[in-house]
Amino acid sequence: MDISELMTQDAHEDGAEVEIFHPSETIEVDGKAERKSLGVFFKVLGIDSRDFQSAEKKAYNKQLSIYAKDKVIDEGAIIDGEISLACAAITGWRGIQDGDKDLPYSKSKCLDLMTKSPWMRKQIESFVGERKNFIKG
After folding, report:
1. Counted domains in the chain
2. Which residues, listed in sequence order, are joined to residue 97 by a DSSP beta bridge?
3. What is the DSSP string of 24-93?
4. Range of the domain at 42
5. Order of strands across the sheet with 16-29?
6. How far apart are CA 79 and CA 41, in angstroms?
7. Does the pLDDT of residue 32 top 90, yes or no?
8. 0.90 cut: is pTM over it?
């Protein structure tokens, strides 16, 4: 195997698009229940990207610092870390509106959305964590 095929960082830097599905609603397709798309898509980096790895180190260091000081696992810090990692992975979106206008991507709106929509964050985390979503071929 060629060494270039083993190096995944560039593919993760290029990113991929994840489609968001309703957390509980389904639609019937050919007699089968399928997840209902919301028509919302996020452009995300993969876990091998430099930005994601940097954010991951910061989140882990914050958690370790709290643990070293208090000798407890801080659930709030874990959730904050998940939110910051999701936001580090997201580089854009489409299909999100504010009223009748498309809502442009911004880091602050992304943070708000990932904080207040844990079900959506979990879908993004799951997609980002699968290396196969970023590697072609």
Report:
1. 1
2. 102
3. EEEEEETTEEEEEEEEEEEEE--TTSHHHHHHHHHHHHHHHHHHHHHSS--HHHHHHHHHHHHHHHEEEE
4. 3-133
5. 16-29, 32-44, 90-94
6. 23
7. no
8. no
